[in-house]
What does this fold into?
Amino acid sequence: MARSLIAVEIMGQRLELETQPGLFSPGHADRGTLAMLSCARFEPGMRVMDLGCGCGIVGILAARICGEENVILSDIDPLAVETARRNAARNGVPGARVVESDGFSRVDATGFDLILSNPPYQSDFSVAKGFIEKGFNRLKPGGTLWMVTKRREWYRNKLVAIFGGVRIHEADGYFVFEAQRRSAHYARRGR
It folds into this structure.
């Protein structure tokens, strides 16, 4: 497969990322991901998870700002994991942990300040449902789940049911959801 490089500057950080056919958005930085990153904020020392990392743009950016020891990137696709590892090294954050995992299944860490995800939203909602429900329990109190999609209602309803509320930002034709964990338990049981 032909590998290519894309360059992007976000939050004052210039990243050079390897990508290739078979990965999500292989020719350029995904607009939805960039929309989410235009809303989210990273600070040094924050614990961050890039859930469904693809080539690693979100997690690598977080590692550059928050510290590589504070960031976990995960993806179910072995090609994405391998590419994200190479990209982390290429961008000076080889200590960011990259894990092959179906959602959180192989990630034991908890207490995240931020979990960010651009979930597959063109198919059914089962992946996103798991990310939201399990993500809630992986955040520390006050931690925030960020998601970006083109669909509004299902995500709004699910995030409100689990988190008790959600802020919705609109950026570049996408809905960027910001849901903060404010309690120890889901907002409404059984949903």
User: Anything to note?
Assistant: The chain has a mean pLDDT of 94. The chain has one domain: 30-180.
